[in-house]
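Subject: design request, 293 residues
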């Protein structure tokens, strides 16, 4: 999996699938998740439908540039945000969600791609929304998956999902892998698979375990605020996909996104949580292939 220097001080690990002459599809992953969370078989299934698929590690994740010289105290950051001290909160975080959106464009440029279909999951959906909002001329279409608008009243997590997300995670390899099972709380009720979660955790730990990056990415995501007004003016063809079992980002986040973006298509998927279970891949690939046609 090659790494490209895409901007001063920023290198991004990435992998491509399919024919470079086909329509490019950039896959953007979510909070703390490496590009391998876009399973290789899923990428190849989409490539087999005539798409040039690109997955990559966001900054502060996996084998891309890590910002460990800028530690963020998450508890203090949350207290500062709750206190309404926006300037102090901004000073704690070394980059913004717009910088992560710029990374996506910089990777496309480095690969010689001017325009692409952009698909983002969870925080990746927020990054993809920012990409479409800031540089619509470079985005052929937007697919926002299991994501939301930045409005706090939509896409709320259940208390159990919040506890799973923010609870401490062991730093040793075996403990980290075992703790991955807590993600079942937001996975598909029908297809959630503890063994697959442990396998992904093991692969992610071995590729590049950087827990400090989660706090920085979280800070960038929180400080992006509401995208509602901007989304009302978005004119990029948009598909919104959300699982009805999602407890980490409630389906109201997807419904609200589709409500705001003019002409957006909403696909609510039964038996899908905050994950992409293999039995649902045929429907997801069909939907993405249609939307990016």
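Subject: RE: design request

Done. Sequence follows.
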């Amino acid at each position: 999996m090659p790494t490209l220097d895409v901007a001063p001080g920023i290198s991004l690990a990435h992998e491509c699938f399919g024919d470079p002459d086909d329509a490019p599809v950039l896959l953007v992953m979510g909070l703390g998740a490496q590009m391998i969370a876009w399973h290789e078989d899923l990428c190849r299934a989409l490539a087999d439908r005539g798409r040039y698929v690109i997955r990559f590690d966001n900054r502060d994740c996996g084998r891309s540039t890590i910002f460990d010289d800028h530690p963020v105290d998450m508890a203090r950051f949350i207290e500062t945000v709750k206190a309404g001290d926006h300037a102090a909160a901004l000073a704690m975080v070394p980059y913004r969600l717009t910088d992560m959106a710029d990374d996506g464009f910089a990777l496309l440029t480095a690969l010689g791609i001017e325009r692409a279909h952009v698909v983002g999951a969870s925080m990746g959906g927020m990054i993809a929304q920012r990409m479409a909002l800031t540089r619509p001329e470079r985005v052929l279409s937007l697919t926002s998956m299991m994501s939301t608008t930045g409005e706090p009243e939509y896409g709320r997590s259940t208390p159990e999902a919040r506890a799973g997300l923010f609870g401490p995670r062991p730093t040793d390899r075996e403990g980290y892998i075992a703790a991955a099972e807590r993600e079942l709380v937001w996975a598909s009720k029908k297809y959630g698979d503890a063994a697959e979660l442990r396998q992904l955790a093991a692969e992610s730990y071995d590729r590049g375990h950087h827990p400090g990056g989660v706090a920085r990415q979280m800070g960038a995501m929180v400080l992006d605020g509401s995208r509602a007004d901007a989304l009302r003016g978005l004119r990029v063809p948009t598909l919104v996909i959300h699982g009805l079992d999602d407890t980490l980002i409630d389906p109201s986040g997807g419904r609200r996104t589709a409500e705001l973006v003019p002409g957006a298509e909403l696909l609510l998927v039964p038996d899908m949580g905050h994950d992409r279970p293999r039995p649902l891949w045929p429907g997801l690939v069909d939907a993405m292939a249609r939307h990016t046609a």
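The CA atoms of residues 125 and 223 lie 15 Å apart.
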